[in-house]
Amino acid sequence: MGVTDPAGPVMDRDEVDRALARLGQEHEAIETSLLALQDHAGRRLLEGAELTGVTQERWQATEARITLLWSYFDAYTATLRGARDIRARRRWSSREDLAELTELLRGTSVAIADAGSGVLSESLSLAELVDRMNELYATSLDLVVAADAVWSALPARIDLLSAELQRTRQLAHSVGVRPGEHPAGDDLERITRTLTRLREDVIRDPLAFWVPAKGSSAPGGGRPDTTVYDREARALEDVRREIEAVLTVRQDAEARLIRLRDVLSRADRTLAEARTARGEVLAKIAATEVPVVSGPPTVLQEQLATAAEYRRGAQWHRLSPLLESLEQKAEDELLRAREQLTAVTAPLAVRAELRGRLDAYKAKVARHGLAEDPFLVERYDAARRMLWSAPCDLRVAEQAVLRYQRAAAELLGAAPEDRKGDQ
Predict the structure, then answer these.
(1) Cβ-contact 42, 135 below 8 angstroms
(2) Residue 97 has what pLDDT?
(3) Which end of the chain, N or C, is less surrounded by CB atoms within 10 Å?
(4) Are 9 and 130 in a shared domain?
């Protein structure tokens, strides 16, 4: 067999066809990943935000990497298209065709131009080009996912804490706790200023609030830095306890009424979170039943208003049994709200379990040296696309995961009972 340099021995027709089929699947997977990155909510937010600090600096570099990534993909696409055109010339490729295809598919046939000048800077093989794209993609996705994670977590939590702060300020005012007159009032003013500044910083420079996970190579490996938020949340809780102590001094009944309002407020917020989560589930999960989230019962608010009237009118004999009844009903309402939140987010938990099962079985296959088996790779890629697409059809995705498990079990030589246990 003839030799081409540096592509190696000339491929025969079957080798060429297999290589083209594999490269076509690889091309499709890369394109899917690039389009997903292009449509990622975090990337769109970064593109439109007024950034500062480390985020502005790193996003400018990442935008350049994404542009380079697309140019690499275009070069990959052109090379693959050229190879397909040569193979399509005739049913039985000539030796010259096969030599040319070998050079395209295995040699350093992809010409890469310098991003600034457009002048040819180097030539790469398709495999080397894919390695370049994988590195650029992972680095870009890591930044996008990190920024999106911070934006998804911290501003909403800050807003919730600010709402709690506002309620605490109103309560403090009602019992005479004011800035300049009581330390708790001064603390409330300081917390307000800190939270306002923190939210502005998080929106403009999210990566300044990201802590990468040590030793993790996965995109977005890490967590939002909640140090400042947690400190202010603890400070607000301390102030709230001080104000409750003032209320307890005044009257036990008033303190019990406030606790009731707090429980009902938490129940309302939980129901609101459940309604928001339901919308997210409906957008991300297809072909599944998501329970409808009910609204808060108005009768409890009416009874609470009645209890307040009893206290103002000093009708203690009526207030006492009503408070006892309301306290139990409020706890039941909070429990019901939490149960609804758990119920509506169940499909996301199922999807997470399927993802974990798929990756765990992939690791098992890899330990047995079958990670590159084409049939298993095809089954794995099919299941992964279903699980990482939106909306995700859980029933279809579960069947895809099971098909991958069964195929792997057969190749591993597992007994039927073992395969059942793996499922």
Answers:
(1) no
(2) 81
(3) N
(4) yes
Query: How far is Cα of residue 103 from the mean position of the Cα atoms in its chain?
Result: 41
Listed in order, strand segments (DSSP E) in 329-414 are: 392-393
Residue 23 and residue 125 in one domain: yes
DSSP code of 208? G
pTM: 0.50
Listed residue (222, 194, 217) closest to 206, CA to CA: 222
E strands of 239-394, at which residues? 285-286, 392-393
Yes or no: say if 9 and 3 are a contact pair by the CB < 8 Å rule. yes
Tell which residue, 414, 416, 347, 346, has the closest CA to residue 387: 347
**What confidence score (pLDDT) does residue 99 get?**
84
pLDDT along the chain (423 residues), means of 10: 51 88 91 91 89 94 92 90 85 81 84 61 85 91 92 93 93 78 86 95 94 73 91 94 68 82 89 84 73 79 86 64 84 87 82 88 85 85 84 84 88 53 44
Distance separating alpha carbons of residues 192 and 182, to the nearest angstrom? 16
Which one-letter amino acid corresponds to residue 120?
L
Domain that holds residue 46: 3-135
The residue type found at 296 is: P
Question: DSSP letters along 144-160, please?
Answer: HHHHHHHHHHHHHHHHH
Q: Are residues 418 and 357 in the same domain?
A: yes
pLDDT score, position 227:
94
Q: Could you tell me the two tokens for 214? A: 């040590």
